[in-house]
Amino acid sequence: MSKKAIIFDLDGVIVDTAKYHFLAWKELAESLGFDFTEEQNELLKGVSRVRSLEILLDIGNVELSQAEKNKYLNEKNEQYLSYIAEMDTREILPGIPELLAFLKAERIPFALGSASKNARLILENLKLLEDFNAIVDGNDVSTAKPDPEVFLIAAEKLGKNPEDCIVIEDAFAGVQAANSAGMTSVAIGDPEVLIGADFNLKSTKELTIDLARQLIK
Ligand code: B16
Ligand code: MG
């Protein structure tokens, strides 16, 4: 068993759920009388559901009671769940199946560290639920990224020291969380947004076996 371990973010690393979150938030914004753009959706990546609603309401300059917020949070999630119910293995991002197969063959443990409360359901739809050695999601943490809690719990569940963990993330808050946890951070996306990462990759296609070998050395 390798000394090192990998912790994967879910949305934007294993699968592109951002488009479904976007559609569901956009429908909510429109029902509240304002527009919500794809550019603004970038602000919600890696952010918890509750915080996402706060950001959305700020954009629309809308104030709501707690009861109304709860109602809209439920409605948004129901809408999002209806989209992800259709999801299957074809939506796993490029390079990920090969990387996971390599990690399994080499007995390098890997965990999920996601802000999503729907993570298990998504992994099940992608037929990946059984592959992960540990799963830590939005139901297991009390503080959201950029707090390192989600990744520290994942390291503990894997029985690894934080410095032996490599985090793969697509959100700035996630890169910050990995760095605060004392882990190696690999960012997927725009390097001008994902500043401070140890490695910057443009897409999951660049998560090659060669890179994995280098990371776990
Ligand atoms: P849910 P990650 C995050 O997942 C998403 O990036 C973020 O956009 C979303 O608001 C959050 O999960 C909560 O998701 O509403 O399903 O609980 O990137 O940390 O895997
Ligand atoms: Mg993400």
pLDDT averaged residue by residue: 96
The CATH superfamily of the largest domain is known as: HAD superfamily/HAD-like
Percent of sequence in beta strands: 5-15%
| Low-pLDDT regions | none
Distance between the termini: 13 Å
CATH topology of the largest domain: Rossmann fold
Measured on Cα atoms, how large is the radius of gyration? Answer: 17 Å
Global geometry: globular
- Major sheet strand order: 3-2-1-4-5-6
**DSSP strand count:** 6
Share of helix among residues?
Answer: 40-55%
Total of domains: 2
Key terms for this structure?
43% helix; 2 domains; Rossmann fold; binds 1,6-di-O-phosphono-beta-D-glucopyranose; alpha/beta; DNA polymerase, domain 1; globular; single chain; binds magnesium ion; 9 helices; 217 residues
Would you give an account of this structure?
This protein is α/β, with parallel strands linked by helices and 217 residues long. The protein has two domains: 5-16 and 90-216, 3-Layer(aba) Sandwich (Rossmann fold), CATH 3.40.50; 18-84, Putative phosphatase, domain 2 (DNA polymerase, domain 1, Orthogonal Bundle), CATH 1.10.150.240. It has helices at 18-31, 38-41, 49-60, 66-84, 96-105, 119-125, 149-158, 172-180, 209-216; strands at residues 5-8, 110-113, 134-136, 165-169, 184-188, 199-201. It has a six-stranded parallel β-sheet with strand order 3-2-1-4-5-6, covered by helices on one side. Helix 1 (18-31) packs across helix 4 (66-84). The structure holds 1,6-di-O-phosphono-beta-D-glucopyranose (B16) and magnesium ion (MG). 1,6-di-O-phosphono-beta-D-glucopyranose (B16) binds at residues 9-12, 21, 44-49, 52, 77, 114-118, 138, 171.
